Amino acid sequence: MYTLAVCAETVFQELPIEERARRLHEAGFQVEIWDWTRHDLDALARTPADFVSMTGYVSGSLTDEDGAAELLRTAEESLKAAEHLGCTRLNLHGTGLDGRGLPVVPVRGEPTEEMWAAARHTLARVAELGESAGVVFTLENLNTAVDHPGVPFARAADTFALVAAVDRPGLRMNLDLYHAQIGEGNLIELVRAAHRAGLIGEIQVADVPGRHEPGTGEINYPAVARALVDLGYEGTVALEGWPSADTESALARFRSAFTV
To answer: Among the options 32, 202, 213, 240, which is catalytic?
Structure first.
């Protein structure tokens, strides 16, 4: 059976991040964070929380030589932070994002063949870093229509193709179903294909529209949950969304949607 996690960045907004992590642990959830450079890692490490995912780079991109060098450099820094927290998954995107989630270096149109080749090469090197450290880097799909215009390799189909092409245990998909619903839809078939290919590192969820907890929008998450059980998925399902009202209610709705 899968386990449930919650991104501490989006819940209990009135509390310091370490108290959010503590509250989530007490509620029975694993914990995820974003940019580790913004937090007191010692304070987080003193909490009893089980940290299962964090951003795996600080800056850089997959599409060009200079960006790749920066991504690899900051991925090595992120590995040290992950070790401090005992975190075993580090998350990547097609390019570095600013504080609003927009690409620092946007790509206009579709990535070129040269960009695809550069991405495959860089991700293979990232996977090697992960394998040496005993962790997994996950490549997250995003959406370009609402939240992240200009991000290359944003579709779930893109992350699927890149992870499959690299084909190393140190790299897997962070399959974000909120983003996939906006960009592609057909979520259950998407999950089935990625699971059967052995490419899923974790699954993230939020509802559409609004990026709130399950039950607030159009996605039938109980049906997704049943599909995951039928597939025998044993990884993490993480809520990465903003509570539509109070955090406690959002957490209860998330747990209910994924209790089969």
So the answer is: 240
**d(Cα 170, Cα 260) in Å, to the nearest integer?**
30
User: Under 8 Å CB-to-CB from 33, ≥6 apart: which residues?
Assistant: 7, 8, 9, 17, 21, 39, 44, 51, 53, 54, 55
Q: What is the mean pLDDT of each run of 10 residues along the chain (260 residues)?
A: 97 98 98 97 98 96 93 97 98 88 85 95 98 98 94 96 98 98 97 98 98 98 98 98 97 98
Which residue, 44, 7, 50, is CA-closest to 25?
50
Q: Give catalytic status of residue 9 as yes or no.
A: no
Angle (deg, nearest 10), helices 156-166 and 113-133: 60
Catalytic residue among 32, 140, 202, 213: 140
**Distinct helix (H) and strand (E) counts, the chain:** 9, 8
Report if pTM > 0.85: yes
**Separation CA 260–CA 254 (nearest Å):** 12
Retrieve residue 233's tokens: 């998925």
Instruction: Tell me if residue 54 falls in helix, strand or coil.
Output: strand
Q: Is residue 114 flagged as an active site residue?
A: no
Query: Would you give the end-to-end CA distance of the chain in angstroms?
Result: 10
